[in-house]
Specification:
Blueprint: E1 2-5, E2 18-20, H1 23-33, E3 36-38, H2 41-44, H3 47-72, E4 76-81, E5 88-93, H4 95-106, E6 115-116, E7 120-122, E8 124-130, E9 139-146, H5 158-170
């Protein structure tokens, strides 16, 4: 089935694109959700207007989410977990745990579905991305350590704050 996307659809395409999708996906998800319409000759004449509206809508959303992206870009989140002697975790660090940590630390409303990371089952440093919009995908760093261990988190934003305090005490 060929459909014309009206809105951006994650892992499928942007608004205004004509895509060939499975019949069930189009009939049961895209069309009822209002994300796409059938790619008829009449609908294809409206491609330019759909793309223009989507570009303006995307720009507004990117402006709103830009502040959040700047805030969480490069953030370092430590997680304490029980682990065996080989460094393998008893359990794993889930997408929900990462989203909760971001929300409590920065006061955001990030959903677990926006977090993209491979399953975390070992100690160490891991990278994760937060998909805020199609264009804004900030990267964060996760430090997984054993419970009871003290971890020093070196963040680029925290380093400049510590230096002026040291200079003031020296003067």
């Amino acid at each position: 089935m060929k459909v014309l996307l009206i809105k951006d659809v994650y892992k499928l395409g942007r608004a205004g694109d004509v895509k060939k999708v499975a019949d069930g996906f189009g009939r049961n998800f895209l069309l009822p959700q209002g994300l796409a319409v059938l790619a008829t000759p009449g609908a294809l004449r409206q491609v330019d207007t759909i793309r223009a509206k989507a570009a303006s809508r995307r720009a507004v959303i990117n402006n709103e989410m830009g502040g959040i992206a700047d805030l969480i870009t490069g953030a370092v989140l430590p997680f304490a977990s029980k682990a065996g002697e080989t460094g393998k975790l008893y359990g794993s660090i889930t997408h929900q745990m990462i989203a909760d940590a971001l929300n409590t630390r920065f006061g955001t409303k990030i959903d677990r579905k926006q977090i993209e990371v491979q399953p975390i089952r070992v100690l160490g440093e891991h990278k994760a991305t937060v998909r805020l919009t199609v264009d804004l995908v900030p990267e964060i760093k996760l430090i997984i350590h054993r419970e009871g261990e003290v971890v020093v988190v070196n963040t680029p934003a925290a380093a400049p704050k510590a230096e002026p305090a040291a200079e003031e005490s020296a003067e």
